[in-house]
Amino acid sequence: MGIQITIRGVSEEVRDELAARAALERLSMQEYLRRELERIAARPSVERWLEGVRERKEAAGNRVSACSILAARDAGRG
Q1: In terms of residue numbers, what domain contains 32?
Q2: Is residue 29 part of a domain?
Q3: Is residue 4 part of a domain?
Q4: How would DSSP label each residue in 20-78?
Q5: pTM for the complete prediction?
Q6: d(C-alpha 27, C-alpha 20), whole Å
Q7: Could you read off the pLDDT of 23-62 as tens digits, one per residue?
Q8: Residues 6+ apart with CB under 8 A from 28
């Protein structure tokens, strides 16, 4: 059996919106929320994603200076 999670203090408007979304997909609110939580948990947080990008950039060793980027941008302007 899975873990139970209780969320208190949810406004009626939020509850109604979530219930409407669940109904559109022909799911119970519990099924809908479980699926959404699983979807959120399956993806890395923004912080973890950014850390991965930083690690890959550092490992690649390629550094492009801001001056080079701006020069390349401006080269196409006439």
Answers
A1: 12-75
A2: yes
A3: no
A4: HHHHHTT--HHHHHHHHHHHHHHSPPHHHHHHHHHHHHHHHT----HHHHHHHHHHT--
A5: 0.63
A6: 10
A7: 999 999 999 999 999 999 999 999 999 999 888 888 888 7
A8: 22
